[in-house]
User: Fold this.
Amino acid sequence: MAKLIVIDGIDGSGKATQSAKLQGALLQKGERVKKISFPDYNAKSSTLVKMYLAGDFGSDASLVNPYAVSTFYAVDRFASFSLGWKQDYSSLGYIIADRYTTSNAIHQMSKLGEEEWEGFLRWLDDLEYGKFGLPRPEITIYLDVDPEICSGLLTKRCKETGGACKDLHERDTDYLENCRKAAIYAADKLGWKVITCCDENGLLPEGIIARRVSDVLVGNNIV
Assistant:
């Protein structure tokens, strides 16, 4: 079985960048590796996710039922695994996931009161790993970036891509703040490895963050 490495974080934290850098580093070492990303916007299975992010179920993300939305994302992952990378998981050395089941813990758990978080994590574990049979990660890395910095980066990205509108999550800085709180809680409860990606001057260079990701993987005997 492949070693499944998950890289997650709030929107704008650099997940895609660091996943791609890690894939490149492993390929240079001659490893057999595949990178996957969620949601799978090119698949029919992401239809409900796209409706949710477009605001079809409500314009305030924090008010849309987190259990219902979690199933939207979980079904997309189930379809992606069953139809796309199940064989790769059996035959390759590494699978790198840009977001995974962990994103439900970050984004959807944040909508609940903190007294409900432990129960939500148990429910989510049973849904995605138990009922749906998705593979468990070998390690989960959480990129910890200040939500204000993420919001600025998302705005910059929108302008650079022709003014494309932010989705339901990205438009709400307070929501991103709550997601970070939920992520830190989940990291503590579930043993995620937290990488600090900022200092007093702002976001660290991509190369420094990549080295920190590599150090965590080496230190935990993943690579």
